[in-house]
Design goal:
alpha/beta, Aldehyde Dehydrogenase, Chain A, domain 1, Aldehyde Dehydrogenase, Chain A, domain 2, 2 domains, 7-stranded parallel β-sheet, 4-stranded parallel β-sheet, 15 helices
C-alpha cells in the first residue's frame, strides 16, 4: 500500500472507533484511562530505552540543550504522564452535559448538550508526553485521536502508543481510538490535512514553521497552539523580591516551553534597583540578555536588543529586557509584540493590576504569578491538548470541555410549523 492508502486506512479505523467512544459510559472510559496508566507504568523501561535512542540521535544532530530537554523522558516524567491519565479519569465527564434547557411557547422543549467532536488529528514536535496526554483527554471526551509526532521523538512515541493501545485491548475498546502515524515523511502531514471525510479537527503543536504550514494547507478546521511570546512586567509598585522570584521562574524553570517568559519589562522607577541584581542572577543561570539602551546603561554586559528580538520566541536561555516609562507603555509593548498567550504583571497596586488584566488581550493574564502556570494540569484540568491562541471555539489550555461541541435535542408532542 502507498503512504496515502495507509493513512486513509488508519483514519477510517479511527472514525469507526470514534463512534464506539461516543456511546461509552463514563465508567468504561475511566476504566480504560486507569488501565492506560497501569500499562504505561509497567512499560517504563521500554519507553526509556526508546527515548534513549531518540535523545542520542538528537544529541548527534546537535539540537540545542533546551530542545533535548523537551524530548528527554525520565522515570519521574513517565510517572507524571501516568498520574495525568489517572487525574483525567477523576474529572467530570463533559459528554452529555446539558449546557442549557428551555421550553418554547408552542411546547417544544429544547436542550443543548455536549457531544464529542469525533476524530481529532494532532501534529506535534519534540515532547513525547503529548502522546499520552492527548490520548487520555481525547478518550475521556469521547473522541478518537490520530497522532503525528516529530521525527526526533519517533521511537518514544511508538513505544508509548503501543502501550496505550495494549491498554485499550485489555479493556475491550478499539485500539484505533489512539492511532499514531508511524511514518515521519512530511507527505504524511499533507495527507492527514486533507482527510475531511474522516477527521473533524486538527491541532498543531510546535514551532512557528509547523503552525504556519498546517494552517495554510489544512482543509480541516484548525485550532492553533501558537508561539508563546510571554511577558512579565515589573511595575513601580511591585514587591521586588517577589518580582525577582517570578521572573527567574518564568524564564529558567523550563525555558523550552511555550509559557516561558521571553521578554522582561521593568518600570523605569525601579529599574536601577531591580535590574542589576536580576541580571546577575539570570547570568549565573546561563541566560543571555538582550536589552534596550536604558537596560544596557544599568547592566553593561547586556547585548543590544534588535527589533526582531522583541517578536522572537527563543525557547532557550535567552531573554529580551526593556525599561518602560509606565504601565501604559508596557501594555502597548505587549499589544505590539506579544502572541496573546500568557503575560504577567507584578504589582501591589490593585488598580494597576486590574488595568493590566483588562487591557492585555491574551489567553492567560496573571497578577503576581509566573507565566509557567499556563498548563492544563496546573489549572486543574487534568492535562491539556495544547494552549490555544485562537479566539474562536477554544482559548488557553484546552482540556475536556474544549474537545466537545454541542447539539440540540428537541422534544415535541406533534407540533408543526405554521
Amino acid at each position: 500500500m502507498s503512504l496515502r492508502q495507509d493513512i486513509i486506512a488508519l483514519a477510517q479505523r479511527a472514525k469507526h472507533a470514534a463512534t464506539v467512544l461516543a456511546a461509552l459510559s463514563t465508567a468504561r472510559k475511566n476504566q480504560a484511562l486507569r488501565q492506560m496508566a497501569t500499562t504505561l507504568r509497567a512499560g517504563t523501561a521500554t519507553v526509556l530505552r526508546a527515548n534513549a535512542t531518540d535523545v542520542a540521535s538528537a544529541t548527534s544532530r546537535k539540537l540545542t540543550p533546551a530542545l533535548v530537554d523537551r524530548l528527554a523522558l525520565t522515570p519521574q516524567r513517565i510517572v507524571e504522564m501516568c498520574v495525568s491519565l489517572e487525574e483525567v479519569a477523576r474529572l467530570p465527564d463533559p459528554v452529555g452535559e446539558v449546557v442549557k434547557a428551555w421550553e418554547r411557547p408552542n411546547g417544544l422543549r429544547i436542550k443543548r448538550v455536549r457531544v464529542p467532536l469525533g476524530v481529532i488529528g494532532i501534529i506535534y514536535e519534540s515532547r513525547p508526553n503529548v502522546t499520552a496526554d492527548c490520548a487520555g483527554l481525547c478518550l475521556k471526551s469521547g473522541n478518537a485521536v490520530i497522532l503525528r509526532g516529530g521525527s526526533e521523538a519517533i521511537q518514544s512515541n511508538r513505544a508509548i502508543a503501543r502501550l496505550l493501545q495494549q491498554a485499550l485491548r485489555l479493556t475491550q475498546l478499539p485500539p484505533a481510538a489512539v492511532t499514531l502515524i508511524p511514518s515521519t515523511e512530511r507527505a504524511g502531514v499533507d495527507i492527514l490535512l486533507g482527510l475531511t471525510p474522516y477527521v473533524d479537527l486538527i491541532i498543531p503543536r510546535g514551532g512557528q514553521a509547523l503552525i504556519d504550514n498546517v494552517t495554510r494547507r489544512s482543509k480541516i478546521p484548525v485550532v492553533k497552539h501558537d508561539k508563546g511570546i510571554c511577558h512579565v512586567y515589573v511595575d513601580e509598585q511591585a514587591n521586588l523580591q517577589m518580582a525577582e522570584e517570578i521572573a527567574f521562574n518564568a524564564k529558567v524553570q523550563r525555558p523550552a516551553t511555550c509559557n516561558a517568559m521571553e521578554t522582561l519589562l521593568v518600570h523605569e522607577r525601579v529599574a536601577q534597583t531591580f535590574l542589576p541584581r536580576m541580571a546577575d542572577r539570570l547570568r549565573q543561570a546561563g541566560v543571555e540578555l538582550r536589552g534596550d539602551a536604558p537596560t544596557r546603561k544599568l547592566v553593561r554586559w547586556v547585548t543590544p536588543a534588535t527589533e526582531r528580538d522583541w517578536a522572537t520566541e527563543y525557547l532557550d536561555l535567552i531573554l529580551s529586557v526593556r525599561v518602560v516609562k509606565n504601565l501604559e507603555q508596557a501594555i502597548a509593548h505587549i499589544r505590539r509584540y506579544g502572541s496573546q498567550h500568557s503575560d504577567a504583571i507584578v504589582t501591589d497596586d490593585p488598580s494597576r493590576a486590574e488595568q493590566f488584566l483588562q487591557a492585555v488581550d491574551s489567553a492567560c493574564v496573571y497578577v503576581n504569578a509566573s507565566t509557567r502556570f499556563t498548563d492544563g494540569y496546573q489549572f486543574g484540568l487534568g492535562a491539556e491538548i495544547g494552549i490555544s491562541t485562537n479566539k474562536l471555539h477554544a482559548r488557553g489550555p484546552m482540556a475536556l470541555e474544549e474537545l466537545t461541541t454541542y447539539k440540540y435535542l428537541v422534544y415535541g408532542q406533534g407540533q408543526v410549523r405554521q
